[in-house]
Amino acid sequence: MLEEALLKIIGLLDIFSGASEGTVRVWDVDTGELHSEQFKGHTNYVNSVAFSPDGKSIVSGSWDTTIRVWDAETGELLSDPFKGHTLFVTSVGFSPDGKRIVSGSWDDSFRVWDAETVDLVSKPFRGHTGRVYSVAFSPNGKCIVSGSDDNTIRVWDAQRGELISEPFTGHSDSVTSVAFSPDGRHILSGSDDRTIRVWDVKTGELVAWSFKGHTAGVTSVAFSPDGKYIVSGSEDKTIRVWDAETGELVSEPFTGHTLKVTSVAFSPDGIHIVSGSLDKTIRVWDVEMRELVSKPFKGHTDWVTSVAFSPDGKCVVSGSEDETIRGWDAETDKPFKRHANVVTASLLVYGVLTEFARHSMFSCLLKCFSS
């Protein structure tokens, strides 16, 4: 029965991936075959990738400081590279209407581009005094939220490039993950200071802050599709689900991972949570029962750095330091082909940019590969 239940979640859908060899690839989950040839063009690590809302295009950001847009079917570049950042591009995503692209960078800025003309929509968004780790459009596309290692969250007018309010302050360490609520009224943030906070977009005031429980840095946060719950993953090896309004734990922590949890996400129907960990496994949990839907997915030979549900909830994808992106089917459990270097990718899942390469992973990779 568990296998049948999981099979309903994990099925056929295209997977796209970013790799340190400078390529982007799209996979067919059903066959494990490349859906198209390698997307070649980047000259350094591909850190972040996301589908356009209509699924026809893919945007990628790289350590080569450029952003590129590709035809998802043919793998051909649709335009010249987007150039302007002076350091690694860490986060990219499309606006809800697919007409704009946002990119965050270690150059302490983020930028908004016209997806068709490759022109900047406005001057670079500057204000952070540290690396920008996470950026995301609001559900209506009018605002952008950014999180940085300057410990602040900032909300910007996406068109004018101006701050809508003063920086949201309160975190005492790097902000590793940010997201808008599904209704666009609140912002969620997770931090290396071990806390999770929910902010009012208009006033910048905290509306929920009693998310107490994690005993180490928070690596990943996400709203449930209905906005009522929050899931968080942490270096303390646990996953926790919280009431988004009260900040109280909904249940006991989800335990089972033996090392740091690097990435978490809700399924689009809100029934399941997927988690990835440095223990090399991926796990799918029943939110209500707080139980594994199936045995842990094993196959990666190194840290799992990123996990996400597809927008229709039919598959789970994972990225790992073993140089692979894998799509998981409960019946076959077969991984897909390997990349030549470390995978550091991200997916735009259900309108929320879910970063695969979190702050801690970037720090580790920088020590290993920077020249």
Question: What would you say this structure looks like, in words?
Answer:
- The chain has helices spanning 2-9, 359-369; strands at residues 14-18, 23-28, 39-40, 46-51, 57-62, 67-71, 89-94, 100-105, 109-114, 125-126, 132-137, 143-148, 153-157, 175-180, 186-191, 196-200, 206-208, 218-223, 229-234, 239-243, 261-266, 272-277, 281-286, 291-292, 297-298, 304-309, 316-320, 325-328, 346-349, 352-355.
- It has 371 residues and is mainly β.
- It has a single domain (2-369), classed as YVTN repeat-like/Quinoprotein amine dehydrogenase (Methylamine Dehydrogenase, Chain H, 7 Propeller).
- Strands 21, 22, 23, 24 and 25 form a 5-stranded antiparallel sheet that branches. Strands 7-8-9-10 form a 4-stranded antiparallel sheet, with no helix packed on it. A 4-stranded antiparallel sheet has the order 14-15-16-17, with no helix packed on it.
- A hairpin with a 5-residue loop joins strand 16 (196-200) and strand 17 (206-208).
